[in-house]
Amino acid sequence: MASEKAQAADSGPRPIVPFLRLEPKPHLVGIRCSCGAIYVDLNRVACSRCGSAGPFEQVSFSGKGSVYVFSVVHQSFPGIPTPYITAIVDLAEGAAIRGNLLDFPPEQAQRDPHKVFGLPVEMVTRVVAKDREGRDVVAFGFRPAKR
Amino acid sequence: MRNVYVLGTGMTKFGRYPEKNVPLLGGEAALMALKDAGVGIKDVEIFFCGNLFQAPNMVGQRVLQQVGQTGIPVVNVANACATGSTAFREAYMAVASGMYEIAMAVGVEQMGKQGLLGSGGGGSDPAYATEGRLGSGLMPAVFGQAGVEHMRKYGTKLEHFAKISVKSHKHATKNPFSQYRNELSLDDVLNSRMIAYPNTLYMCCPTGDGAAAAILVSEAKLRQLAGGRRRPRVAAAALTSDPWTEHDLALPDVSTLTRRAAKQAYEAAGVGPKDVDLTELHDCFATAELIHYENLGLCGDGEAAKFIDEGGGMHPALGGKSPVNVSGGLLSKGHPLGATGVANICEITWHLTEDERARPRQVPNAKVGMAHVIGLGSACTVHILTI
Lengths: 147, 387
Ligand SMILES: [Zn+2]
Description:
The complex is a heterodimer of chains A (147) and B (387).
Chain A: H1 2-9, E1 14-15, E2 20-21, E3 27-32, E4 38-39, E5 57-60, E6 64-73, E7 84-91, E8 96-101, H2 106-111, E9 120-130, E10 136-144
Parallel strand pairs in A: 1-10
Antiparallel strand pairs in A: 2-3, 3-4, 3-5, 6-7, 6-9, 7-8, 9-10
Chain B: E1 4-11, H1 22-37, E2 46-50, H2 59-67, E3 74-77, H3 83-96, E4 102-110, H4 139-154, H5 158-172, H6 186-191, E5 194-196, E6 199-200, E7 209-218, H7 219-225, E8 233-241, H8 256-269, E9 278-280, H9 286-295, H10 304-309, H11 329-333, H12 337-352, E10 368-375, E11 379-386
Parallel strand pairs in B: 2-3, 2-4, 9-10
Antiparallel strand pairs in B: 1-7, 4-7, 5-6, 8-11, 10-11
Helix pairs in contact in B: 1-2, 3-12, 4-9, 5-9
Bound molecules: zinc ion (ZN).
């Protein structure tokens, strides 16, 4: 609690969603149920797979995973640059998460979609906006993993 | 549970009606269905009204303020794109349970030109809006990915999705209730601008306004009111929500709940996919129709592309088999969200009863019809009507 209050008062960058942690280095957090289901999310009353109310194990994700499927978005809200790749990433720890696939040309993904399926990726972060208090808002995305 | 029959149906042409409002559109459809049934609003004992965008505004009561305030119970239903079909199912259950003899279901929507993008979200500070920054949760991307998933599993090509849209538009030329009635070539579809890969503009359903209504009755009332007219029986009314599946929380899984609903419906009706003479399924995007061929068992898993190449889904008059969306479907007929599920029931009913409203596109000797709707989030209905 103390650290959350300190963070709120801070003028430093803020994650776009609560399950993205920026310290000590950016990572996703979640919970694992004893049934094996894993969620990139901390606020759950119960496991939607088995119904157990926990207690749940806290999980830190490595950010490594592979692309399950994707789409290339060509039309969006004003201010959202297009085209961009939206991807469902299977995280190494077992959960799936949606994010932008960065550093991969959208036209190449459309030309040869089978090159994207199973593509090993790693999580990266980027500043996407400034909030009303003038703090940087940080989002996560994925890029092809460095070999 | 008792037998339930569809005594009357009515719908407005789908399109744009900026000069009208939701209760007016709903009222028009209700009056058409009542007239078709040969009853009046005073005969209706309970009313289920499906509307999504004005869900907090007591749309059903306002429809009755248009057609007759008889003081009957009114239930307003919202269930995403399955709103209308859920209202129909509730009306079915009201009669099937034995509590009511005559129920009315109306689905109505006025979307204008706002499109399927909806609002940007993000709460009070738009800096925290996630759309486009943590991928896309909007319909075009979700159903784009559902198609891409099929490409990954089975090597499906863009052309197969595009062929579905060509078929839809060909069918729609025979439907005066359809929002769009123009034919499109394969090149037209493939070369229209990309919205969310692999769906191009013409592989996405339009938005629009419209309403549809149905009057459901018990067997006793049917005998009393039908006057020798043949009316379809609601042989199955299945409703499912999305069970836990591996990717569902990241990418809504529109297949598993459809398969479950179809299985339940086939079992309840005592028929199989081969017995179905026509299907209206939820082709909000061309990719959706392709995967639902398999989900509904119209072809085997991984066989949708082959099914399409062999004329699957095409009207028999065009040399096809297992006709799907002979109305033009959502892709051409339009998709006023709340109206869609009841409009499907109208279409099926008209074919089963050889109604003049389906004459230009009548599926010959239709005895069994299936209507499938998905509301993302998710809800799925499968209704089977028989005559
Ligand atoms: Zn569990």
